């Protein structure tokens, strides 16, 4: 076996160990849930992505996000149920439960 093969094997074992740890610790669900933040523009569409930003997700499933103006914040509050349905399609087995909006600074 060449040195390159050994390194590849080590990387695969490390990846398997990490996946096992994430699954057993429950952190795997949180990592999957965080996809919502990295995929925000894709998930909410260009119009909403231009005036909003996802900030973080708490352990209880609260998504914290910001909107550019008070008008948008108001509109997005009314859209919460629809947004949650769309976002939960990718958040995995630990669903988002609510969205808390603030004004972008």
Secondary-structure blueprint of this entry?
Elements: H1 3-25, H2 27-33, H3 35-38, H4 40-44, H5 46-49, E1 52-57, E2 62-67, H6 70-78, H7 80-87, E3 98-103
Parallel strand pairs: 2-3
Antiparallel strand pairs: 1-2
Helix pairs in contact: 1-2
Keywords summarizing the entry:
GMP Synthetase, Chain A, domain 3, 57% helix, alpha+beta, 2 domains
Mean pLDDT rating: 83
Largest sheet: 3 strands, mixed
Low-confidence parts: none
Structural class: alpha+beta
Number of domains: 2
CATH A-level architecture of the largest domain: 2-Layer Sandwich
Q: Report the oligomer.
A: single chain
What distance separates the N and C termini?
56 Å
Largest sheet, spatial ordering of strands: 1-2-3
Q: Estimate what percentage of residues fall within beta strands.
A: 15-25%
Shape: elongated
Strand runs, count:
3
Roughly how much helix do the residues carry, as a percent range?
55-70%
Which CATH top level class of the largest domain fits? Answer: Alpha Beta
Order of helices and strands: HHHHHEEHHE
The total of helices stands at 7
CATH T-level fold name of the largest domain: GMP Synthetase, Chain A, domain 3
CATH homology superfamily of the largest domain: K homology (KH) domain
What does this structure look like?
With 105 residues, the protein is α+β, with helices and mostly antiparallel strands. It has two domains: 1-28; 34-103, 2-Layer Sandwich (GMP Synthetase, Chain A, domain 3), CATH 3.30.300. Helix content is 57%, strand content 17%. The protein contains seven helices and three strands. The protein has a three-stranded mixed β-sheet. The protein starts with a helix and ends with a strand.
């Amino acid at each position: 076996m060449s040195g390159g093969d050994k390194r590849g094997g080590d990387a695969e074992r490390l990846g398997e160990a990490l996946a096992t740890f994430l699954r057993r610790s429950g952190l795997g669900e949180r990592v999957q849930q965080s996809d919502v933040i990295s995929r925000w523009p894709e998930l909410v569409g260009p119009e909403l992505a231009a005036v909003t930003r996802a900030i973080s997700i708490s352990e209880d499933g609260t998504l914290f996000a910001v909107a550019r103006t008070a008008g948008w914040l108001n509109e997005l509050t009314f859209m919460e149920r629809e947004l949650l349905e769309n976002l939960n399609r990718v958040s995995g087995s630990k669903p988002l439960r609510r969205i808390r909006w603030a004004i972008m600074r």
